[in-house]
Amino acid sequence: MSSEIIHVLGAGLVGPLMAIYLARKGFQVNLLERRPDMRQTGVSGGRSINLAITARGWKSLEEVGLKEAVSAISIPMKGRMVHDIEGNTSLQPYSQNPGEVIYAASRGLLNIMLLNEAEKYPNIRVVFDRRCTSFDPDKNRLTLQDETGEHTEEIETKTVIAADGAWSAVRKEMLARVENFNYSQSFLDYGYKELVIPPDAQGQFQMEPHALHIWPRKRYMMIALPNTEGSFTVTLFYPYEGKDSFAQLRTREAVAEFFNQVFPDAVPLMPTLQEDFFANPTGALVTVKCSPWHIDGKSLLIGDAAHAIVPFFAQGMNSGFEDCAMLNSLITDSHPDWGTVFDTFTRLRKPNADAIADMAVENFIEMRDSVTDPHFLLKKQVGFELEKRWPGKFIPRYSMVVFRPDIPYADAKQRGSLQDDILEQLCADITSPEEVDWALAERLLLGAEPVPV
Predict the structure, then answer these.
(1) Helical (H) or strand (E) element with 334
(2) Tens digit of pLDDT for each residue in 295-329?
(3) Is the separation of the CB atoms in 216 and 368 below 8 Å?
(4) Cα–Cα distance between 103 and 92 in angstroms, integer?
(5) Which residues are 235's β-sheet partners?
(6) Residue ranges of the alpha helices (H) in 127-191?
(7) 152-156/141-145 β-pairing
(8) 111: part of which helix (H) or strand (E)?
(9) Could you tell me the pTM of the whole model?
(10) What's the order of all strands across the beta sheet hosting 124-127?
């Protein structure tokens, strides 16, 4: 077992998984978390946006032997269950291929499972209530502080992997210290509010559990993901300001009137709607892009610390888990040269992180607006038919992102754009898939030069 100590900052989802990968390679790992241990204090509510695990996440979990255990706390979702204003529902499958589904999981349960697994390794030391306040790469020194601010300590370290989230302390230090450090953060003009649909009196689901429920309302939307104990975590995505906005929902009466008008079928399922609305905070939706992600071989940003994205393609956690898997493979190839490992990781990974960040914002528009648009639905049907007739030649963008971890995000974005152009040509003057000119489709597909799979 190596005597080299690696400090991993952040014990959310990505940090423990990275620590497990490193421990399996024989490194000594100190996993540092600013918050108290959630297994003792409980999981804080109101900001979770429940997770959807997709193929990229499953691949990483399988590599560390956790796929079966995580499967036991997750629920397969086969498509979007769209709720219209009258309360009618329709299922839009994610894929036409059997087995291609996404899985809902509780962020808290998954985090606890990862922490428990990490602590099984004798070479992982987990320390809670330790906030990183600064990192000095010249002196190889981390400064840590407890939550009270009364206790400060300095730790000597040669290698830091920062998985400390969208507001990363290490990234903040890099912004101050690294010449020509590129950094941007962009907020949507939308916040989110977490609510709940509890189980019924018999402890059963009140809606179809094997679907991601969505109430699209053009400028905004509400979604609901199932939990294993029979409830749904509900999230309202709504503008901060303006005519239809959180700014207008200041009273219990205003909240009741809004939900009864806009989500009438959901209201009877939400007995604590008003209490939850005012008890839970309004969260922000941010995209973070930066470069470089590392300082020589001394520190590296991964997960949200490097590339925070909005949650509308269900890839925030999955892309972070994919970071861990790629970094693990590069360590196998190039360690002990951490400089080469970190530089190669950044060079290969950043274009894909930028691509999924852009696609996640685009998918917000699709979810809140396009899923009820006849032209969008027609293109989706035609896309499925193209995939069936020319497998491998046409793969829907959603499938490339969610079900094909062998296709990098940047390639999925580029290929998806080319395919959308083809769909627009095929669907320009028709109203049903039966009207498609399949000879033209073949010429367009065979004449295109999609990114190789």
Answers:
(1) helix 316-334
(2) 999 999 999 999 999 999 999 999 999 999 999 99
(3) yes
(4) 16
(5) 194, 223
(6) 169-177
(7) antiparallel
(8) helix 107-118
(9) 0.94
(10) 124-127, 28-32, 5-9, 160-162, 299-301, 294-295
